[in-house]
Amino acid sequence: MDQTLHDRLNAHLQLEFEAAHRYLSMALWLERIDLPGFGAWLRGQSADELSHAHRIIDHLADRDLLVRIPEIPAQPTEWESPEAAVAAILESEQRVTRAIADLYDLSEKVHDRAASIMLQWFVNEQVEEENVARTLLGRLRLVGGDGVGMLMIDQELAKGTVPGAMAEAGANGAE
Ligand code: FEO
After folding, report:
1. How far is the CA of 67 from the centre of ligand 1 (A)?
2. pLDDT per residue over 71-84, tens digit each?
3. At 57, is the pLDDT very low, low, confident or very high (cuts 50, 70, 90)?
4. How far is CA 121 from CA 71, 128, 173, in A?
């Protein structure tokens, strides 16, 4: 594998592990403020992020390449509001989308077809992840912090009926 691509795939692990830790911390905070549906959804998102890191780890390991497990800084333990937390999720996912696009472009430039195919999965996954975060943020903005509205969204997340989050929550339920 091209050395720069190898280094950047290792560096990308930081983003995936950090997202896993941040989403777990968010889940625990949302559970503490009595929004268990949000918590369950985010525990699932955290597990998804770990599986993303493992996809890259497995790809490198399968090719007998060195994997560097990154140091992950401590994450916040609370956010200004559920809306602020979901806005932070969308921002984080957009950052990951840009990072994946750069990795994909590099893999094509160095003609690493196996890496390109592995990264193609992430390109599609990011469309879904951004869609879920954007939909949820839009719904939170619609209810504007109203308690009844928040509880309705929380129940929908618990049941997996928030548009865009359906497949995610369904998958979590199956785990
Ligand atoms: Fe693995 Fe949500 O980016």
Report:
1. 19
2. 999 999 999 999 99
3. very high
4. 25, 11, 22
> Is it the case that residue 11 has pLDDT exceeding 50?
yes
- Does ligand 1 lie within 6 Å of residue 129's CB atom? yes
Instruction: Answer yes or no: is the C-beta of 12 below 6 A from any ligand 1 atom.
Output: no
Q: Ligand 1 in contact with 15 (CB < 6 A)?
A: no
| Ligand 1 within 6 A of CB of 168 | no
Whether 18 lines ligand 1, by a CB cut-off of 6 Å, is: no
Q: Which domain holds residue 20?
A: 3-173
Give the pLDDT score at 170.
45
Residue 164: predicted pLDDT: 63
- Residue 21 CB burial class (10 angstroms; 0-12, 13-18, ≥19): middle
Q: Supply the pLDDT for residue 161.
A: 75
How many structural domains comprise the chain?
A: 1
The Cα-based distances of 112 to 6, 9, 10, 53, 119 in angstroms read: 11, 13, 16, 19, 11
Tell me how far the alpha carbon of residue 62 lies from the centroid of ligand 1, in angstroms. Answer: 22
Query: Would you state the pLDDT for residue 172?
Result: 43
> Residue 47 belongs to a domain with what CATH number?
1.20.1260.10
